[in-house]
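Write out the 3D structure for:
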Amino acid sequence: MDGLQSRRRSACAHTPPSVLRSVPFPLSCRGQTTLGAMETDVALSTRDKRKWEAVSGQHPDMKTLIKRMLAAGLPDWAALRVLYRAAYGAGVFLYETGVWLKKIFIVEPTMRALCTSVGKRLRIERIPYMRRHGRIILGDDVEISGKIGIAFNPVLGLDPELRVGNHTFIGHQCSFSIAKAIIIGNDCLIAGNTHFSDNDGHPVDAARRRAGERVAPADVKPVTIGNDVWIGAGCRILKGVTIGDRAIVGAASVVTRDVPADTIVAGNPAREVGRGKG
């Protein structure tokens, strides 16, 4: 007992007064009752330790408080789940209703105004980004997903034209660079991020590029896509290419030459890798 009292006195002697006043339970120091907070190796009784743990837990430091705030959340009650499911469903309904109204009253009328001719039951989600002017002819039941880009080059005097056949799908972020003509047949599937171009964009000759010259009309060669063609995502279809009916082009392919009908091609440059079924 004398050893315990001695250690308590020693600890109290080295404890700042501000700490001694912070804990509301008595500890004996030099025979007197003093309010103290002992963060030392004093041999407190089990009862005193429990009191200290209870008090220190009520006053966490800033780091502990922030951790508790970040980890906090609403209770996982069944009623709350039902409420949030209903709120989510209502949000989706309102969003899709807004998209539908925009498509009916803004997107489709604008697209029809921009096109030379549009068939029945056009389905389009967003107005395409278009540069300059040219002719756009869309067949029946054409579907355009997301947003596409169309860049015409009318300065060559070739009357550029984009023609899309019936029942053809064009995916999100497809783009067309047209100086003369890009023709896509019926029942085609064009996956997203595919680029079509009937010109090189710049002259091949370096001296002409330095001079700021444009592509010459002789360097423009139309692109023709047959019926029932499937083109995978991320393809590049370059000038002068003709893809035959029912052909399949693998994703990320670069097509630099004609693809016969019922042929499967893939790679850069695209090469035949199989035969399709007619």
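The radius of gyration is 38 Å.
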